[in-house]
Amino acid sequence: MPTHATPLFSVDLQQVQGLSLVLDWLKLQGTESSATLEAAKAHFKSCGAISTWRFLSNSLPELKQHDEMLEDALVAVAMYEKVRGTTKKTPCHGLTMTVRSACRPSAVEVGPKTLGGKLWKLHPDYAAIASRWNGLQVVDIPPCPAWIWHGMMKKIIPDAVMDEAACLQMLSSVDYDMDRRPEFKYAFEHSLGVAKMCLLSPENGMRGLALAALLSYDIQQLVRMQHERWIREQHGAFSFGDIEMSPEECIRLAVGDCGGQGPYGYQNSEQYRLGKPSMFISMIVANSHDVLYDICSQNRVSNILYAEVKGGSLDNWHTVLAHSGMDSIAERINLLKEGEVPLYGDTAALGTGCWAPFNGRYRSLERYIKYSKLLKRSQHPDAGKIMAFSRQQRVYQEYNITHSDLVVYWKLSIDSDGIRQTKSRTQHTYKVVMDKRLLSGDSVLRGLDICGNCHDLLADKILNTQYSVTSAIEISPSVANASSVQWASLLVQVANWCIESQVCSSCAALIGDRLDEIAFHVLVELMKNEPKTSAKDFLVEQYTVWCSTTAPISIASILSGFDLRAQIVMDQGAMGDRDTVDC
Question: Domains of the chain: which residue ranges?
Answer without folding.
Answer: 65-582
